[in-house]
Amino acid sequence: MKIIDVHGSMEFIKRFKTESLIWSLLNHERIAPLLDFKFTDNSFFLLTEKYSSGSLFDLVKQWESANDPQRLHRIVTFLTDICSGLQYMHSLGIYHGDVKLENCLLSNGRVVLCDFGMANFYSRDTKALIKIPDLSRRILDETVVPSSPYNISTGSSHSYRNSPLSSVANTPTPRSPRSSATASTTSSYNSARLPDTHIGSLPYSSPEILRPNPPALDHLTDSHVSSS
């Protein structure tokens, strides 16, 4: 179970509803499935399978103190799994945006990708999305009324308006991904930012992402955020 505190903020509700929607579209053996959800004005509850073997981060920490004779073979397997999951996402016109050890869960000696909080669409190609899953339609139809008197406002919040689902959601034309990546933040919280104003986790990011004018976000984003 992933629990996200949205603090009654409409901006956070939109942000994490988009994460839930993108996650619901993914159906691949190397991606943790979204099984069900529950939205309230303060918290989002996202149900997935239980993974009790930890993450690649936990395994790498173990390797620091214990020799594993199968380490090289396992690394090749893990990389193959990660590339398989990413290739599937890219075929749908979606980038993950935060590929790192902590977001690679272990299941029966294999890797499954998780945490799609920075994922978004970079392509409007609908050929791969032959059918919108029922779970995705439920998320689109779900209405969450914010309870907070204030809202963080940014020019870069994720939205499915950027996606092939825009016609389903009946939403306006989106801003370009490049403007989303470079937009400045204005809020009552002294320049508070949503995570996607700097794509990926900074310790894992390549120099390209840290430039004042980073490259447009697309499938190559996943190699940039995990290249260090």
From TrEMBL:
Listed PROSITE patterns: PROTEIN_KINASE_DOM, PROTEIN_KINASE_ST
Catalysed reaction equations from the record: L-seryl-[protein] + ATP = O-phospho-L-seryl-[protein] + ADP + H(+); L-threonyl-[protein] + ATP = O-phospho-L-threonyl-[protein] + ADP + H(+)
Key word Transferase present: yes
Residue ranges of domain Protein kinase in the record: 1-228
SMART domains with a match to the protein in the record: S_TKc
InterPro entries on file: Kinase-like_dom_sf, Prot_kinase_dom, Ser/Thr_kinase_AS
Biased composition (Low complexity): 171-193
Keywords: ATP-binding, Kinase, Nucleotide-binding, Serine/threonine-protein kinase, Transferase
Superkingdom field: Eukaryota
EC numbers for this chain: 2.7.11.1
UniProt-listed CDD domains: PKc (cd00180)
Skewed-composition ranges (Polar residues): 151-170
Region (Disordered): 151-228
The keyword Flavoprotein is annotated on this UniProt entry: no
Protein name from the UniProt record: non-specific serine/threonine protein kinase
Species for this entry: Pichia angusta (Yeast)
